[in-house]
Amino acid sequence: MIPSAFAQATVDREGEAGAAWLAELPALVDDLMARWDCVRDGEVTHGQVGVIVPVLHASGPAVLKVSFPHPGNVHEPDAYAAWGGRGAVLLYERDDASFAMLLERAKSSTLGQLADGDEIASVSGQLSRRLSIPAPSGLPRLADQAEGWAAELRQDAADCPGALPVAVVDSALAVIDELGRHQPELVVHGDFHGRNILRGNREPWLAVDPKGYVGDPAYDGATLLKPRALALMESDDLMKALLHELDVFAEAAELDRERVRRWAHLQVVQAAFHGRRHGFGRARGGPLLDRLLAVVDHWAVSWC
Length: 304
What we know:
Elements: H1 4-14, H2 16-35, E1 39-40, E2 45-46, E3 50-57, E4 60-67, H3 76-83, E5 91-95, E6 100-104, H4 117-131, H5 146-159, H6 166-180, E7 186-188, E8 197-199, E9 205-207, E10 213-215, H7 217-231, H8 238-253, H9 257-278, H10 286-302
Antiparallel strand pairs: 1-3, 2-3, 3-4, 4-6, 5-6, 7-10, 8-9
Helix pairs in contact: 1-2, 4-7, 4-8, 5-6, 6-9, 7-8, 7-9, 9-10
């Protein structure tokens, strides 16, 4: 039942704890399916940290999602519950102790697969506006991460002297001080990009895999833009293309474009240092990593 690639990635990442969790996973899935009266309805797939089991349920086609226990997954069901199906898949059942949920089934095609950048930016902006509802109690605040962001950025700059101009790092620190420490009381997806927006049946597009934060929706706009840089790498003018998509997103989301741009600047500076330490998902080393770092550095300096 467990995809081999997922099993190997889990053990590589989590070690013995991951192996122990995988050993118990089949029995856990069987127990959840029996408890929630589900029948398996397709091949098991997976994301980075969880398995997705297509099932039939009284509420209709659904998926059983079971994730490896991790702090980043704790508030995913809380976000779904807050949205109640408004722009996101519906939450039918939850077992927080098992990091398990029964969710409305969406299609496998993602917004990120579209070729039209304007459509990606417009659809995601409209969806962001719908997801930005008053936050319920209990969700973690992005503002609580601000001090950690600043400390890490200063340490990165000290450990990688000359990687970016001092003015660029100072500009990113200013974003933390001016936007990061005091944010709106709205629900923020937290990992908002094209791969986490799926074609739906009940609605044209539905968000999945939220982190579930309280904060500034413009932060999600910045998160959306980072993978778009990779898609637009061959553009004649990458920065112009990114700014255009930022404008389309901000208008659709009814957000201040400058606020989105500044959040994007912070996230790109963070990415520039992260890439030097750990590489990127697409490249851990070699010429491709060098090229990606050059793109990220250029973006960080251009939007300072």
